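ok trying again, last paste got cut off:
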Amino acid sequence: MEKLKLTPNVLKIDDNDRTITASVTIDGQALIPDDGAEYTLKLANASGHVKDITLAELAFSSAELKSLPADTYTAEVWMTTGDKQRIYPSNGKAYLQIVSNVTSLVGDIVPPMTVDEISKKLDDIAKKGVTSMPGKSAYQTWLDLGNTGTEQDFINSLKADADKRPATSVWIDLSDTQNIIGRFDNGCWVELQTAAKWVPLYATGAAGYGSVTMQSFVHDQCWCNVQSFINGFLTLDAMKKATPDKYEYWKTCVVHDPYADVKQYDWSKCRITSTGSDLGEVDFAKMMFAVGLFSEKTILSLGAVKK
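nice, full thing came through this time. structure:
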């Protein structure tokens, strides 16, 4: 089996003083570069191929990434010898994530105002009066657009992070030897905690192991299931046909920086399978909703109830 791993595989924009190695292994043995060959790292995102980087001793400087925006990128190493090309790995890809740094967010400094200044402003407004045109409130317009909830729900929706969106891909971070971390392209990340040490090999299909075109829910290929769902091969109906034990590795998953708030729902009656048992499927459903892969309509159909 061929594997490709980039180290480090998570960097911030403008971090241009690191050396990134592209480690290629074949059946567990490290690839020794051929002096007569040229090695190129090819990067792509959801839109397609975006950049080629010439490798020296299977490494390159992070300065080569300067032109790339924050995103999740897939990677391959192409070895060229004359008119012959070999692509590593032969199955799957490596993943590289570029994330924003604090200077990527542009903020304004609001000038301070004393209590007296605020009182004076309010007095001026009161003296001048406020003229308004009759019409719908912003809250009513929000309801007319098909949203539901109280005025507080409307206010909370305005506070949502503008950069947040439903996930469209996931890559696997194996740097944590205790947990398997899935990092989604919308900033959410999930710790898949498990005591079974063999699970990382079989549970990380999105990083190059296993299949990401599965049409049935597989017990030990946890992230393969997620990526197969993203890719459109694994359906909700197929998930419903799985036995409850297939979801057991999701029982202790933890979602960080969620896209959606699971606390707004009662999950006690939520089930994916029809048996009524919960060996981890509720946690899986909550995770899929939290990262934006399950819609509210989906979780309500599974038995979740909005509080």
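cool. The two ends are 49 Å apart (CA to CA). The domain at 2-102 is CATH 2.60.40.10 (Immunoglobulin-like).
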